[in-house]
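Suppose you are handed a protein chain with no further information: no name, no annotation, nothing but its sequence. What can you learn? This example shows the usual starting point.
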Amino acid sequence: MKKILIGLFLTTSLISFGIEKEGYVDSKIKENMTKNDKLSFLIVHFGTTFDDTRVKTIDALNNDAKNKFSDFKVVEAYTSRIIMRRLKSRNIIKDNPAEAIDKLEKEGYTYLIVQPSNIIPGIEFKTLEKQIELYKTKFKDIRIGAPLLGENENYKKVLTILKKDIGDLEDNEGVVLVGHGTRDSANSTYACVDYTAKDLGLPFYVGTIEGYPTIDNVIKNLKKDNIKKVILTPFMFVAGDHANNDIAVDWKEKLEENGFIVINRVKGLGEIKEIRELMIENANFMITHKKEDMISKKLFYSKQKDK
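A reasonable first move is to predict its three-dimensional structure. Written in structure tokens, the prediction is:
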């Protein structure tokens, strides 16, 4: 009976905490704001020097955010210092996250939601998280939304969107999605997406340029499944240097050397409206939720264990 009562107490307590999604708690920014408070959104990109894909992806996401959050200020920032330096030589100036946040603080913004256009929660995202942490005392609240594949449920959503965008496939035809790859543990996301595709019955094969699975892993699996024709496409937000060179040239050549017919599809994920909508939803979610404080949660459970 005692165990049942404790279980009921825990359940009731968790409900009172407002946990609606694992890892987050209910916390509505608008309910905490006073008339002197101001909320802003910062959309953070790695960046690109390719003007055409920037318009179709980065600028498109920025505009989507401005339309969705029309009552608030929406600004952007780039994280790649190399890209920002190259753009500056062409008189295209982009703030880095620190510069953008400093400006918002000076303008009197007290609440800030940061939404990255990262695909996985890898080194770029984790570095951004650490940088944002440095500003937590300068705002009443500062929150960061998850990257595209920061939540497991988005694996199926992204694959379903890609299946629709690519269209029907012929017999013995497969799609090779090529991500950047990272030395961070988040690289496992790519293998998980590949596994999810197989679970959904999709002939999608995920590889990376600088991680695992490699192109050799992809080729092995394509041959095992008797795939003859390949649609080769970047699994990246923008179709920039990697997409136009490493993938459209190097990967294409190696696949052809192994006997595959290859069709290049140089299209960044950010060009797909439904993909951008998932990212905007991640930002919108942070208006009403914040990440769960795991230390407080563990302390709560430890106290219940003693009863």
